[in-house]
Amino acid sequence: MILATISRCAVATFRRSHSIRQLSSVITSDVCEDIVHGPLTTFSEDEEMTRDAAKQWAQEKLKPLVRRMDDECKLLPEVIESLFQQGFMGMEIEEEYGGSGLNFTSACLVIEEISRVDPSVAILADIHNTLTNNAVRFWGSPTQKSKWLPRLAYGTVSSFALSEANSGSDAFAMKTTATPSKDGSHYTLNGSKLWISNAPEAGVFLVFANADPSKGYKGITAFLVDANTDGITVGKPEKKLGLRASATCPVVFENVKVDADDILGDIGQGYKYCINILNEGRIGIAAQQIGIAKGCLDIAMPYMMERTQFDTKIADFQGMQHQYAQIATEVHAAELMAYNACRLKESGLPFIKQASMVKLYSSQVAERAASKTIEW
């Protein structure tokens, strides 16, 4: 109705006078009073409450354990258990399956606040919520939803098994195969995955394997595989420079039998599911990067307000003000891009370009924030 009114008024005015001033006047007087655009960083009451709960949990429960987990290169079981207790592992899962029933923006706000304190923990929660949970929600059968969503909401960590040694950015060049049994009752998985996050903690793997290599990437199929299934071996975690508490491991599937009922969606449609779920996953990564950048400022700014040189707080030197003003501006720009992408997705509008751009930009901002705050 509003769009129709805008169109009629605008076209009629433009045809009569070609006057931009008149066009603006007509649209403003007739329509704009009915349109309310909230700021991108203004959130609903539920979203605000969710963010505040995540911030409080991260500060009170997570922060005291960050150094220990980084030193030991592993996530503590009590942290994972607490994530489930707080509802942070089933944020978008519907309440009927034991989830919190939140929207995508709320989930990203939680990821941002956790990442602000420990991005290693944010990785676990982001992959679990944005990739696995949503894949089951979007393409799972009613039986699969009843089987897996309560587990994913209440206590089973998931892992997204896609990448391989020669199948990183070119994900569809994967060599892992899924061979059907003669009666079609099950499939046998064989292959190796690399750089798989959450692997040691996972109770279920979302595995992508090719059920018909003759069809190329159109044979790729998604399987929900219980981590206790015979034939699964989780290798030693990679030694990383950062995010050390988040385990990144090789996972080997050797004659792993999976029931045909545990195929997610349709055979040969895994590549489509993968593309779609990773598109929105980029926004979750952006939330992680924004959290990292804010976390850097949280540490550096109080220090610069305390330390003095030449009887002046170093934060008061103009040369320093130029630097942290620049970083703060870039963080804010990344926020606007991220939550604009969230709203586009929630509105059912195209968001892939925006998600890709904010993943790129927020990653650059996080790096600059980390590098600059180390210098300060």
Task: Write a structural description.
With about 375 residues, the protein is α+β, with helices and mostly antiparallel strands. The chain is about 55% helix and about 15% strand. It has helices spanning about 1-15, 20-30, 45-60, 65-70, 75-85, 105-115, 120-140, 140-155, 270-305, 320-345, 350-375; strands at about 155-160, 175-180, 185-195, 200-210, 220-225, 230-235, 250-260, 265, 310, 310-315. The chain has a four-stranded mixed beta sheet with strand order 1-4-5-8. It has a four-stranded antiparallel beta sheet with strand order 2-3-7-6, with helices on one face. The chain has a two-stranded antiparallel ribbon with strand order 9-10. Strand 9 and strand 10 (about 310-315) form a beta hairpin.
Name the overall outline.
globular
Helix content: 40-55%
Query: Helix and strand string, N-terminal first?
Result: HHHHHHHHEEEEEEEEHEEHH
Number of strands: 10
Indicate the proportion of strand residues: 15-25%
Mean pLDDT across all residues, rounded? 91
Number of helices: 11
Q: Largest beta sheet: what is the strand line-up? A: 1-4-5-8
Radius of gyration: 24 Å
* Major sheet attributes: 4 strands, mixed
Ends apart, CA distance between termini: 54 Å
Class inferred from helices and paired strands? alpha+beta
The low-confidence runs, each spanning 5 or more residues with pLDDT under 50, are 1-32
